[in-house]
Amino acid sequence: MTIALRVTEALHDRLLAMATGPVETGAVLIAHLVPTGSTATVLLGADLIEVPDDAYEVRADQSLQITSDGYVHALKTAREQGAVAIWVHSHPGNHAIPLPSRHDRLVNNQLEGLFGDRTETDQYGYLIVSHADGALTFTGALTGPASGPIELLSALGERWLFRSSYGTAATGAPDLFDRNIRAFGDGIQNTISQLTVAVVGAGGTGSVTAEQLCRLGVRSFILIDPDTLSSSNTTRVYGSTPADVGRAKVDVLGDHLQRIADGVHVERIQGTVTTEHVARALLRADVVFGCTDDNAGRLRLSRLPSYYLTPLVDCGIQIHADDDGIISGIFGRVTTLYPGAACLTCRDRIDLSLADAEMRAGDEQQRLEKEGYAPALPGVEPAVVAFTTAVAATAVSEFLERLVGYGETPSPTEVILYIHDRAVRANAQDPRPGHYCDPSTRRVGTDRDMFLGLNWVS
User: Fold this and answer.
1) What is 178-453's CATH superfamily?
2) Residue 7 has what pLDDT?
C-alpha cells in the first residue's frame, strides 16, 4: 500500500520551518486516514502540534530527546478527532538526508504501540523532514492496519506543490518532453508524470483537457462520464470517429489517450458524480478537472478542496444565440479551487434550484414544473469545438500556472473568456464567512457520517 499525504500551504510552511531550523525539532501531525478503495491511502493533515520547549531534554543539530509531555497531549487531540498521530522530526541542514537513523528506528519502535493505543486507531506513522535549497524533502511511513511508505506529499494553496519522497527515481522521458522541460524545468515535468488526474465529463471540453494533459506527461487518469457518444458529439469530442457512436464516452476517450502515449493508465467509470460510489473514486485523484455541465455535479465537485484537500479546476461555457442562430455572446469560465478559495456556491456559479431539479425523478420533476414549484430543466445547449477547445486550453494553462508560478501574484482564482469580445478578465473571491469553504470552519476530514457533508440518493 502507498500513502499520499495532503496538507494545506500553511501547514507545509510550518513543516518547512522545522526542516530549515538549526536544531532538530519534534512535532505530532494530526491526520485523517482516508481509504480510497484501491491500494493507495490518503492522509489529510489537519494540524501540527509542536513539542513544547520545556519538553526537550536534548536538542542539537543531530540529536533529539524529549519527555512524554512533548506528545501525550497531541495523542489526546488525535483521539478526540478520530485521527491518527504521526511523529514528525527534522534532520537540519541544507541537503541533509531525511532517512531514519538507527536511533530514529529505535524511537519508532518505542512510540508505535503507545501512539496506536492512545489514539485508539492502532496506527502509527513517522515523518522525517529536511530541505534542499529551501525545498522540503521527506521520508515517512504508516504502520498498523493501513501500512506503507508515504510516497507523495502535496501542499495546496495559491501554489500547488507535489513532492515525492526522498530518493524517488525520476520518471518520464527527457527526450520526449524536451520542449516542456525547456519551458518549466525537469522538476515540474517529473511532478506532472507522477500525478493521477481525474476528468469529470468526457465530452467536448473534457476530451480536449485530457488530451492536453496526456501530451504534457500525465500518465494516470480517472475518467467519469455517464453517457454514450452520439453522432453530434463527434464534432467536438477529441479522438472520436463516426465508428465510435454508441460507445461509452469514457471508453472512446480512454482508448484515445492510450494511443497517444505508452504507459498511460486509465480508470474508466461510466457513471455520474451525483452517485456516492462514483464521487468517492475522486479521492484517488491528486487533481480534478470539472468538465460537466450539470449543476448537481458541480455542487459536489466544489466541496472536494475543503473536505479532502483535492484541488479542482472547473470549466464552463455558454453560447447565447437566438432561434435564427445570431450569436450575442460567447462566454468561457475557468475557476480554480483549493483550500482557502471561494467555492462555486459562494461565487454564484451553481444554480441550486436547478441542482435540486436535476436530482429529482423525471415524473416528479415534470409534475413540479407544471405546478410552478420547480424550474424547467434547460434543453440542449449550443456547442462549438473552437470554443470548447479554448476553454479547455485555459483550464490546463491554469493548472500549469499553479505548478510553475509564472503568473501574477496573488493569482486570480477565476478566468472569464469573453470570446465574442476577444477579451479575457480575471477575478478572485474570498469564501463567505462561516461557509464550508471558509478555512476557519476546518472541514478537512470531518465528513465521516455524510460524504462531502451532503445527502446522497441511494
Assistant:
1) NAD(P)-binding Rossmann-like Domain (3.40.50.720)
2) 98
